[in-house]
Amino acid sequence: MPSVVLGWDMSAALSMAEALGVDARATAEFLPVIEAVMARHLNDQMDGSREAEP
C-alpha cells in the first residue's frame, strides 16, 4: 500500500514556531504555503524511490 504525506500536524508546527520565537502572524501566514510545498516534494521523493525499487 503506497504511503503519502497529506500534511503536517499544524498544532505541533505552531507550538514549535512559538518555542523558537517566530512571530505568530508570520507563522499563520507562511506555514500553510510551506506545508503544501513540503508535502508535494516529499510525495515526489517517495514516488521516485518507489519507481527505483525492483
How would the blueprint of this fold be written?
Blueprint (H helix, E strand, L loop, with lengths): L9 H10 L4 H29 L2
Explain what this protein looks like in three dimensions.
This protein is mainly alpha-helical. The protein has two helices and no strands. The protein has helices spanning 10-19, 24-52.
Radius of gyration: 14 Å
The structural class is mainly alpha
What assembly state would you assign to the polypeptide chains in this entry?
A: single chain
N to C succession of SSEs: HH
Cα shape:
elongated
Strand content: under 5%
State the major sheet: none
Identify low-pLDDT runs.
Answer: none
- Summed over residues and divided by their number, the pLDDT gives a mean of 86
Please give the number of β-strands.
0
User: Number of DSSP helices?
Assistant: 2
- Helical content stands at over 70%
